[in-house]
């Protein structure tokens, strides 16, 4: 596990602590800016969206924020009016600490569904928080929001005088729909509201919305970016590159750290009718339990990829004779390989990263998605999750 210190951008600081939500590891994070921020958020479409999502959606209506509070190891989902009241109380207490309006505080939660926050511990923990915050390390923030993650996920990039820093958590219940898991990006760049929204939404579509561990969409998916402008204006093209660099790095970390995962799986579909078709087919491949288990076992069964493409039956323009399937640079269909080629493929599949490349030959669009193999470790982690 890397313990490298990654500093938060100028003007941001954090409080990280354990308040006894589940165990002795850190489970409370507050990240605050010393000035008002432009802010954008994207959230789960789940019909069981948690109170943290409900509150944060409301607080982001004006496109601004000052702080975000995260409680890990308890999702506070499916807890009714009491759970919503608890989320509001956490936000109000955080606002009092930071010195801002409750509407300027966002909240995220992650963990077991169906359990309210242990509010006696939460109140006591928040009561011990003092300002100014002492932490400026994004790695500490990333560590405190972990649940079944095996290591903290943090990435950074520069853009002129500004910095973009991102953290993420999530290794299970990962099949994003409008956002993903919990990921927070912070920057000291000055960006106009519409530009920030357009850039962030576009980046999310190309990164976090292209990762899947197990096809399950979380009730608490939250992706936010806060920009406080402390380092001034930036070139928007370069800023978008920096945001995408951070988001893509975090996306791959999430996929690589999938529960029980041993390999990063990248699926690239090109020569598709449009991006929607390319992404749908790529997701069909990366989400197939048969493909994922073949990758895990280094089984050169490329027919499972053909199956995953073929079941996208709504696309009648996909023709069997036109599809090309490759693992890495090795073509497996329609030019099939002999025993020597299969042995080479088996050796390739034993690596830590596996790339599946499919050309549909229905157009000129493309998409890339990321996931992981499926091991017995995934079953064990989730069979024992609440016990």
Please tag this protein with its features.
5-stranded mixed sheet; 8-stranded mixed sheet; Ubiquitin-like (UB roll); 387 residues; 33% helix
Overview of this protein structure:
With 387 residues, the chain is α+β, with helices and mostly antiparallel strands. The chain folds into two domains: 12-256, L-amino peptidase D-ALA esterase/amidase; 264-383, Roll (Ubiquitin-like (UB roll)), CATH 3.10.20. 33% of the residues lie in helices and 25% in strands. The strands form two sheets. Strands 1, 2, 3, 4, 5, 6, 7 and 8 form an eight-stranded mixed sheet that branches. Strands 11-10-12-9-13 form a five-stranded mixed sheet. Helix 5 runs parallel beside helix 6 and helix 7 (275-286) packs across helix 9 (303-310). The longest helix has 21 residues, at 236-256. The chain is globular, with a radius of gyration of 22 Å. The two termini are 25 Å apart. The mean pLDDT is 91.
Total number of strands: 13
As a whole number of angstroms, the C-alpha radius of gyration is 22 Å
What spatial form do the alpha-carbon principal axes imply? globular
Task: Write the CATH fold name of the largest domain.
Answer: L-amino peptidase D-ALA esterase/amidase
Largest sheet: 8 strands, mixed
Number of domains: 2
State the name of the first-level CATH class of the largest domain: Alpha Beta
Distance between the termini: 25 Å
């Amino acid at each position: 596990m890397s313990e490298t210190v990654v500093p938060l951008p100028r003007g941001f600081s954090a409080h990280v602590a354990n308040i006894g939500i589940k165990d002795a590891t850190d489970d409370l994070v507050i990240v605050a800016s010393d000035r008002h921020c432009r802010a954008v958020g994207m959230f789960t479409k789940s019909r069981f969206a948690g109170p943290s999502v409900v509150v944060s959606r409301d607080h982001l209506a004006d496109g601004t924020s000052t702080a975000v509070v995260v409680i890990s190891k308890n999702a506070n989902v499916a807890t009714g009016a009491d759970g919503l009241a608890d989320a509001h109380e956490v936000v109000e207490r955080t606002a009092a600490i930071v010195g801002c309006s409750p509407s300027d505080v966002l909240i995220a939660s992650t963990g077991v569904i169906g359990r309210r926050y242990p509010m006696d511990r939460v109140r006591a923990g928040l009561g011990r928080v003092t300002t100014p915050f002492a932490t400026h390390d994004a790695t500490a923030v990333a560590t405190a929001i972990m649940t079944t993650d095996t290591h903290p996920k943090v990435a950074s990039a520069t853009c002129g005088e500004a910095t973009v820093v991102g953290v993420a958590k999530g290794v299970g219940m990962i099949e994003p729909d409008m956002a993903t898991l919990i990921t927070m990006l912070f920057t000291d760049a000055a960006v106009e509201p519409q530009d920030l929204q357009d850039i962030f939404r576009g980046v999310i579509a190309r990164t976090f919305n292209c990762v899947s561990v197990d096809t399950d969409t979380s009730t608490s998916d939250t992706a936010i970016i806060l920009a406080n402008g402390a380092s001034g204006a930036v070139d928007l093209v370069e800023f978008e590159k920096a945001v995408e660099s951070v988001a893509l790095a975090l996306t791959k970390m999430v996929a690589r750290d999938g529960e029980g995962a041993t390999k990063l799986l990248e699926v690239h579909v090109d020569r598709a009718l449009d991006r929607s078709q390319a992404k749908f087919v790529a997701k069909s491949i990366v989400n197939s339990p048969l493909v994922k288990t073949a990758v895990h076992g280094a089984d050169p069964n490329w027919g499972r990829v053909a199956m995953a493409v073929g079941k996208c039956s709504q696309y009648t323009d996909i023709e069997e004779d036109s599809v090309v399937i490759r693992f890495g640079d090795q073509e497996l269909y329609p030019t099939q390989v002999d025993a020597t080629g299969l042995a080479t493929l088996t050796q390739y599949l034993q690596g830590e990263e596996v790339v599946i490349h499919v050309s549909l030959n229905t157009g000129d669009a493309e998409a890339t998605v990321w996931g992981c193999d499926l091991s017995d470790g995934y079953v064990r982690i989730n069979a024992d999750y609440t016990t």
